[in-house]
Amino acid sequence: MNRIIAFASFLICISAQLFAQNYTGSPVPPRLVVVISVDQMRNDYLERFDAYFGEGGFQRLKRQGIRFSNAKYHYVPTYTGPGHACISTGTFPMYNGIVANDWHERGLGKSVYCVEDQSVRTIGSTTTAGLMSPKNLWTSTLGDELKMAYPNAKNTAVAIKDRSAILLSGHHSDGVYWLDPANGHFISSSFYVDALPQWVHAFNQSKQKEVGLNQAWELDKKLQGLKHLDRQEEELPLPAEVDPIFPHNNSKSSSELGYQRLKYLPAGNTLTVEFALEMLRQEHLGLDDTPDLLNISFSQPDILGHQFGIRSLEIADTYIKLDQELAKLFGYLDQYIGAEHWVVVLTADHGAAENPLRANANRIPGGVIEGGIKEKLIQSVPEAAPFIEDVLNLNVYLKEDCPAELKVKLRSVMRALPGILDVYEFDQLYSMLSLNHGPGMVAKGVHHSRSGDLIGIPKPGYMEGLRLGKGTTHGSPFVYDSHVPLLIYGGMFKPHIFVQEVGIEDIAPTLSQLLGIPAPNGSVGSILPIFKGR
User: Active-site residue 80, yes or no?
Assistant: First the structure.
């Protein structure tokens, strides 16, 4: 027994010494940590649009920061809700509970939205857009742990999408705001506040939201030489527009969509940055030695990407303009806080797939998984009809008393559907948790109370929910959806590129180490080697 204890102690000492060689610690935490999620940003966009970027935005992070060029999500589904929850909690849906954007809640017997909460009130608007909270998130976040360690610290978030802001910030926040598209106001929930701060009221009453709303969206001059590539077969026009081409200035679109239009235009990113800058000033973020957290999610690239796909001039132009917004944000942080006092992490909640029309035109397999899966299952196995509760996100929810033989039949029918790679039974998944691909990713992304009894995975290049087969979407375990940027920048770090694979679940525990606080309580991630060489 003594030999075992001695050997264990030896291993602990050796591990500690090896760890110490790569990690020197952070004696003084930064005054401000900025976590940025660019919704639907593929990792290859950093190379594809590199020539169009200026010096102060993406290039500053790439050249002066630490880049993890092989950062991936290790679970499916790769959706917005789970992605933002993984960034903030350092763990997988199986632990934090955010298994999709929407799921069938077995205890309620109905479909629920990941941040919906009928027990709260909208703050800042008369609409229902604020009936949201993090009540469905089971774990703490980076911001929650910061507030526990430093009660005077500020934990804030802003996004166009409610789920992005809420799931980045968490439960204990000093301000979580998202856009109400009915009026263009940033709003919140009574879960967080009883009334909007005066500065938010003032911002909402200003003309900021009008900037770019009624103006034509013109193609950047850097892309004018590619104008002949406008109007691709796989592109959908903006809502209320006729053609998917520049300039996007349809007056009918502005009058019909109103502030909804901000979700599709680069002006939505401009508005997000302007609000973030006002929050910096009004909440006095980063001005003392107590660290603060600012979470920013740029939602527009995803909403636009679903319409136009990954190869469009609209996406290229969006990233050129977003690069300019990032440069403005970083430049302001230098002046307001001091370049040595802030750290930024930039990543994405998921990637996006190649449109199947374009893939097929290049002789690459791909396609659309047609809807009506529930009806197809019932048609093939009619005796199973009374036992099927719901079909959502390729998850088949069955009643508890569904006979085993019917489950086998349903799985067999679903596996034979066009575009389906495989179908897993929930109960078989836990034996596959150690795998970082395929069924292991499925296992990390499910929970028995919120996931189906049968879980389908598409073939590479196949996807659900494409209207007319155009635009793009995401959600699969494959590299086009799971591989995203991960850039970390701060005056305390030396530039470096790491090519070994890391997980997005590593972000929260790494920032926790940087801030000198406990990692979120469900965290399973590792500390990234950002301290090496300091």
Answer: yes
